[in-house]
Amino acid sequence: MCGIDCLLDLSGRAQDSQHVKERLERGLDAIAHRGPDGGGTWVSNDARVALGHARLAIMGPDARGCQPMASTSSSARAIVNGEFYEWEQLLNRLCPNYSCASSSDSELLLALYDRFDGDIHAVLPHLRGEFAFVLHDPARAKLYAVRDRYGIKPLYYTVEDQQLAFCSEIKGLLAMLPSAPRWDLSAALNEGWRTGNSTLLSGIRWVKPGSLLEVDLHTNSITEQSYFVRQFPLKSIDDARPIDALVAGVRSRLIDAIRVRLRSDVPVGVFLSGGVDSSAVAGIVAHLLKAKAAPALDPSVPPCTFRCFTIDFDHEWSEAGIAQRTAEWVGAQYCPLKVDEEMLCQYFEEVIAQCELPYADLGCVAKYLLARFAKQQGVKVVLTGEGSDEHLAGYPIFRGDRFAERDAAMGQCEDAKPAKELLQPLPSFYGLPANKPRCSTSARPPLAHLAMHGMLSTSHHHEGLQEWAESFIDPSGGDAALDSLLDSLPRKSQEAIREDKYHPLHTALLVYQRSTFVTQQLTHLGDRVEMAHALEARTPFLDHHLTQFIDSLPPSLKLRFDPRTKALREKWILYEAARPFITPEVYERVKQPFVAAPRRYPRGGPMHRLLQRLLTREGVQAVGWLDSERVERLMVKAFGKDEHMTGATDDAREAKVATAQALLCAEMCLFAKRWGVEKLTGQEKARVAADVGDEVRKRVRRVD
């Protein structure tokens, strides 16, 4: 994994190559943490196109793998952030006559591009891995910006003063732009940053997962198109495949996804919790090593073993014990990191600056510390369990949609329906219902039919807003956020949802993956906290060979009710597929959430002191749309106004909700200060900041 940036002039004006290069290098300096092993830039002769790269050397770490990378058989050039798997086999099979200039997997992109005569749509189906890239083809006057199927690797872009800019992180874009950033209040208050492809800043967008932007350098037109669309079986069609064969299909594809991700020229480890996802990864890694189906992963440990890294929290939800027993069972070296509230609060500001999006929990800080710990131990690559819950219905929020309709695909084998109390609306972390009763089929927007739609349409800052800012909140109670999410999906997905083709569980999985999963799990618990330490994380559960097979499975094999035990079993088919590689303890265990903090933060403790320091009257007012008095009331609700907790709510959950909202307000204060966001002083100025001057909205045309 690396960091990339790009500048493209759309004005036709003469450009100064030195000035362009300096802007490009400012962007690279801002994301230097992503690529400590070197960097490079390239500027075209007319200075219209510029490519930059900060390198993290994993495959082919010698100097020949430096980027920007030029084709050996055409004028095309590319910058790549990520990994392409089985690249040598693809080169031998599809590009036998291509002369490679390096032993880097990134060169596969240019070889395939030349092999298919510049047809990017013919190239993309062959790419297996986690990636984001920009490819420039002067001969065909094209520039492409592409993101992997699930958005594992980030890529942001903006258009300002007729300059199109791309970068792996927002901070890099801001370093390249000449003007101060402005808030996008509509996106900030109506979840556009989470349910669309907006960010907190006006005019800055991210390339959608499974999508590409194509720029025609003759006309300067910019089009957006999906190249990958998740598809599920029609809910009315029976699935006659034997269940044993489906279990075996998941098992074989998961083993293969892990096998290809063990190839590395640097040490590899595993992030291990107490859950089935990471335990299955660790167990299969051990199996492959013992079977000599994978190379040695780490020269610092004995042959046929590897290191597992685990967070050991200082509360009752810690999974360190079961993780240690799993590591011992698979023969791995157990490496725990003790983390407490003091440590989490100490690094909070540093982590939020890396993540660049709101997150109302300290889990991202814990993952940041774990990534730093692994890197300090000499590991440069880790395998993780991300992506399993989002494909196999691993969260409680999916229960209502799973049992909203019968699983017709299973015919007479459909399992019994669980007791009603197991499907009661589940409270969200922020105090609004995550599950709501399904609306009638004639209601709009279509996503309001989902039981989980309450979580998708929740806004998080309302209790701390100034009165004038409340006018930006969607009066429909979240329908605008749902509309934004629906519109961001590929057209084929929109049609399937509107025509009610999929089982409700599959629709819920689809929309969750394209919203919260991308903007929170893959960002706060994934790329940003890992790449802050130049640690490459590989996600076998997001291998598209595996996920497409999982998407074809009936809902009842993902979330299953056991009439014998009267219990729900999430990710049922994964437990069965992974059973040979996990301990009986993991197999029998009830899923536990990843919890970084206690049920309630004490007054005078590290969290209280952190928020007191960040939520000063001056800091809150600098945001421009938060109300300092309302924020103070949030603090009282969370921690009380004196040592006796006077004024604090007696409900621990309500106190945690108030703390979460105060935490989000604190993050806005940090963003305003670090980014130098233009302060909003009134309603009219806010409307201009939110709705006017967004060149991206005017220029990018969707064609799928």
Automatic annotation (TrEMBL):
GO terms for molecular function: asparagine synthase (glutamine-hydrolyzing) activity; ATP binding. The record marks 386 as: Important for beta-aspartyl-AMP intermediate formation. Keywords: Amino-acid biosynthesis, Asparagine biosynthesis, ATP-binding, Glutamine amidotransferase, Nucleotide-binding. It comes from the Eukaryota. PROSITE patterns: GATASE_TYPE_2 (PS51278). ATP binds at residue 311. One of its GO terms (cellular component) is cytosol. L-glutamine binds at residue 105. The active site is at 2 (for gatase activity). Transmembrane segments: none annotated. Residues 2-218 form the Glutamine amidotransferase type-2 domain. One of its GO terms (biological process) is asparagine biosynthetic process. NCBIfam families: asn_synth_AEB. Belongs to the asparagine synthetase family. PANTHER family: ASPARAGINE SYNTHETASE, ASPARAGINE SYNTHETASE (GLUTAMINE-HYDROLYZING). This is Glutamine-hydrolyzing asparagine synthase. It comes from Jaminaea rosea.
